[in-house]
What we know:
Layout: E1 3-6, H1 13-23, E2 31-34, H2 45-53, E3 59-61, H3 65-84, H4 92-96, H5 99-108, H6 115-122, H7 129-139, E4 145-150, E5 153-158, H8 165-174, H9 183-189, E6 202-206, E7 224-228, E8 231-235, E9 252-255, E10 260-263
Parallel strand pairs: 1-2, 2-3, 5-6, 6-8
Antiparallel strand pairs: 1-9, 4-5, 7-8, 9-10
Amino acid sequence: xxxxxxxxxxxxxxxxxxxxxxxxxxxxxxxxxxxxxxxxxxxxxxxxxxxxxxxxxxxxxxxxxxxxxxxxxxxxxxxxxxxxxxxxxxxxxxxxxxxxxxxxxxxxxxxxxxxxxxxxxxxxxxxxxxxxxxxxxxxxxxxxxxxxxxxxxxxxxxxxxxxxxxxxxxxxxxxxxxxxxxxxxxxxxxxxxxxxxxxxxxxxxxxxxxxxxxxxxxxxxxxxxxxxxxxxxxxxxxxxxxxxxxxxxxxxxxxxxxxxxxxxx
Length: 265
């Protein structure tokens, strides 16, 4: 049995499947953990959503900030449709382009990557509220982090950063965290702040901030490893969805048994 971790697929379904084949992943005996952000920005969100909704064998999905947003988009679209539709059979694609819908939808929900509208416009078959409810319901089951112990090593896999409840309460009390509205927001939004916490004797594997951007995680589109005291951090978001704009962008997967890293290219 092997344990693989990937993150930040962002609708790059073809690239995801290509890399998965490179790893030799066997769903009957291996585990794949996808550490958040399966949607937005990329062109194959429908394929990625259907893959997740199929509950593929051996795959564990975690919550990311883009996944959180997409759930909100889905629920808002369904609520608006049921409240404002002209007829029972008005299709969602026509509905979303009505002026009395598109402006409040954009103002209050901010589907900033146009993922929902793109799904509606590009679908081979008309999508229904049932599709969006099914996707949202699936994603709402994603946990925020998981723990694994492999070959005596302890790992926490999370989308953006891990913090203990005790450290989080202390950070909120002191006003030293940017995410005082709930520990879940730390899990999906933390950037450099995540490197201040973690857990002694444990490796935190995360994504969220691509290693092609100029910041503390920059590593030319390769996996970044950092050690701080008795804590260890591995960033596996190599910015795959930006590959057309950035020559170093990549998709990465790490196998925990030997920490071998597989790259798309």
